Design the sequence.
């Protein structure tokens, strides 16, 4: 006989599903690689590691929960998203509002762990506002894909600044690659909602230019990502052989991603979005850390 989970654990599971907690794998490895690069330049502090992890989790959780709040009526009308927690009533609006506020406060408080470095505390508010602003972007601009990419690209820059207390080229180059990568795969993902976005008047590249052109644009962006990643060792000399081998592997994965998603067949979008991109981000982190700390 299957034992039922206590109510509190079921609620926690619903919250984790609401924010797609497992998708933290997309953003965390890039930020973690930036942090590893920073720790190679400055002394390691355990409290910095705690601050880094807490800020990443709270920032992403705040943004995702807020996105579900803002989009709840749109999600209810879209057949692909109608089964999400708010449209189905699994979680109430007040519950998600409270969760969003708690996570937002958790993010701000977590920046205190980086003191005496004041930059994370000063940047907490503007960063949070930018992350939340993405939820409204697709209502007025097809550049929403790049807004999302920039939102995730803030992570490697913020990690470097929080740990080192200064600005430098390496995290910005890494951030540039993240913008191109995320904007590209978000365009691919948005192809699923082409018809709905057109009917609802939402802005996305597929709705503006059509699915075939959107997929071509995504391929161009991903080619650009590989080029930008290849330039990272030019501003961060600790990266070498293992890193370049990883770049070749990433290029192969991105080619595979674009081969399995075609304008006439979007059935494998989820495989491209979830599986391939998770391997890309984790793989880059692995080869980068290997070069910095082992080789």
Sequence:
């Amino acid at each position: 006989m299957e034992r039922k989970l206590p109510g509190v654990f079921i609620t926690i599971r619903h919250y984790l599903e609401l924010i797609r907690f497992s998708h933290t794998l997309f953003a965390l490895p890039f930020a973690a690689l930036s942090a590893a690069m920073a720790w190679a330049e400055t002394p390691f502090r355990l409290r910095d590691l705690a601050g880094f992890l807490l800020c990443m989790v709270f920032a992403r959780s705040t943004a995702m929960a807020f996105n579900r709040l803002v989009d709840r009526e749109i999600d209810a009308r879209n057949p692909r998203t109608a089964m999400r927690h708010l449209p189905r009533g699994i979680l109430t609006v007040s519950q998600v509002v409270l969760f969003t506020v708690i996570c937002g406060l958790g993010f701000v408080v977590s920046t205190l762990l980086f003191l005496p470095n004041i930059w994370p505390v000063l940047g907490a508010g503007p960063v949070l506002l930018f992350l939340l602003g993405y939820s409204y972007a697709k209502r007025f601009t097809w550049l929403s894909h790049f807004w999302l990419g920039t939102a995730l690209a803030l992570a490697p820059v913020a990690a470097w600044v929080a740990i080192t207390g200064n600005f430098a080229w390496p995290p910005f180059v890494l951030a540039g690659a993240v913008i191109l990568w995320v904007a590209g795969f978000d365009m691919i993902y948005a192809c699923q909602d082409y018809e709905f976005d057109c009917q609802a008047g939402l802005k996305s590249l597929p709705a503006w230019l059509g699915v075939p052109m959107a997929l071509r644009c995504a391929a161009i962006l991903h080619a650009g990502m590989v080029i930008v990643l290849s330039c990272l060792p030019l501003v961060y000399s600790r990266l070498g052989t293992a890193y370049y081998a990883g770049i070749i592997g990433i290029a192969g994965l991105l080619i595979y991603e674009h081969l399995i998603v075609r304008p006439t067949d979007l059935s494998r979008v989820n495989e491209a979005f979830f599986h391939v991109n998770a391997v890309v981000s984790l793989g880059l982190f692995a080869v980068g850390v290997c070069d910095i700390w082992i080789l």
About this structure: The domain at 23-133+141-294 is CATH 1.10.357.140 (Tetracycline Repressor; domain 2).
